[in-house]
Structure formats: structure tokens, C-alpha cells
């Protein structure tokens, strides 16, 4: 199962610009990427966190009030490719989406907190990353687009297969101001 040579499992290039273009055009096709949850040549699945693929920020003290929404972020597209080596896997993953200003939103730079978690076949965490994605929203257009491409490397225990692992991406809904 794990030979001495390195193999690459890829469903297309994970490219920040391609993901950004897909987010702007609303493209939901899987050309150049793998659809969410699909397995490509033993590569770990990539999934959106079930309740964390969108996030809403409110004015302080007004969480849940529709008139107090500052902005809302959505992850709309994902992609990943893998480099499989003996005993370890490197997953290059990407995601893109958009930010919409709410009734209380202000144009400018908006930072969205994102969590990425790798889990094993029993859904136990193996590793994770926390990052912020910055989006600029202009005064003349209340929508902004973002994309990010990162890599994560993790060890595969003997007797396990890379396809048994899962890479989950989602917003950090416990961030201050999120509701």
C-alpha cells in the first residue's frame, strides 16, 4: 500500500484565482476541483463543516437581531489535491466564498475566522489550522469575494489509508461578534 515512490492524487490544480473566479461567478461545477465529499485516488475527503459554512456578525449586544447584522460570510467552493508519501499525506486545499454587508455593515476590510481540521476514520482530530481570511468590501458594492489556498501535512498510521481521513473547513462561529 505504501511504496517507496511518491504518488500524487489530484483532481485538478488548487488555484486561488480559479477559486476566486468561481466564487464571483457562482460556479458550482467541479471542473478543476473535487466536489465536496468526493474521494479522488485515495485522497482524504474535503467537507464543509455542516453548520459552519456561513457566519454572521452582529453589532455588540444585538446577536440574533436581523437589523443589527454587520456582515455575513459564506464558503461556496472547495478544492483539494494530495501528495501521498510513505506514512504521510500532504493535502493542498482551497476554498472561496463571499461576504455580504448587512444593514449595519460598513465598507472596508473584513476579517473572517476559519478553522480547518483533519480527522481520522473515527473522526478523532489529527491536526488543525486556524486562520483569518481578509476581504475588502467597497462602499459602492456591498459584496466582497475571498479565496485561500493552504497545505496541511499529517502522518498516516500503519494500516490506515489516506482516504479514511477527512479535511473539514468552516468558519469559527465562536468568534467575538458572531451569532
Distance between the termini: 45 Å
What's the shape?
Answer: elongated
* Domain count: 1
Radius of gyration: 18 Å
Strand content: over 45%
What's the main sheet like? 5 strands, antiparallel
Residues in helices, as a percent range: under 10%
Q: Based on DSSP secondary structure assignment, what is the total number of beta strands?
A: 9
Mean pLDDT: 84
Q: Count the DSSP helices.
A: 1
Could you give the order of the helices and strands? EHEEEEEEEE
Residue windows where pLDDT falls under 50 for at least 5 positions: 1-12, 28-40
Structural class: mainly beta
Structure overview:
This protein has one domain (7-171). The chain contains 1 helix and 9 strands, in the order E-H-E-E-E-E-E-E-E-E. It has one helix at 16-25; strands at residues 7-10, 45-48, 54-58, 69-85, 88-101, 108-119, 125-137, 143-155, 166-171. Strand 4 and strand 5 (88-101) form a beta hairpin. It is elongated, with a radius of gyration of 18 Å.
List descriptors.
179 residues; mainly beta; 5-stranded antiparallel β-sheet; 4-stranded mixed β-sheet; 1 helix; disordered N terminus
Amino acid at each position: 500500500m505504501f511504496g517507496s515512490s511518491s504518488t500524487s492524487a489530484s483532481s485538478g490544480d488548487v488555484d486561488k484565482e480559479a477559486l476566486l473566479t468561481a466564487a464571483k461567478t457562482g460556479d458550482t461545477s467541479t471542473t478543476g476541483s473535487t466536489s465536496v465529499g468526493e474521494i479522488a485516488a485515495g485522497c482524504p475527503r474535503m467537507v464543509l463543516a455542516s453548520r459552519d459554512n456561513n457566519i454572521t456578525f452582529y453589532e455588540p449586544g444585538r446577536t440574533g437581531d436581523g437589523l443589527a447584522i454587520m456582515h455575513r460570510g459564506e464558503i461556496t467552493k472547495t478544492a483539494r489535491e494530495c501528495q501521498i508519501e510513505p506514512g504521510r499525506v500532504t493535502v493542498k486545499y482551497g476554498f472561496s466564498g463571499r461576504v455580504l454587508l448587512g444593514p449595519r455593515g460598513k465598507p472596508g476590510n473584513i476579517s473572517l475566522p476559519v478553522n480547518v481540521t483533519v480527522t481520522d476514520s473515527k473522526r478523532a482530530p489529527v491536526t488543525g489550522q486556524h486562520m483569518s481570511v481578509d476581504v475588502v468590501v467597497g462602499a459602492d458594492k456591498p459584496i466582497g469575494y475571498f479565496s485561500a489556498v493552504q497545505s496541511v501535512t499529517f502522518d498516516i498510521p500503519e494500516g490506515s489509508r489516506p482516504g479514511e481521513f477527512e479535511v473539514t473547513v468552516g468558519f469559527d462561529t465562536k468568534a467575538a461578534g458572531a451569532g
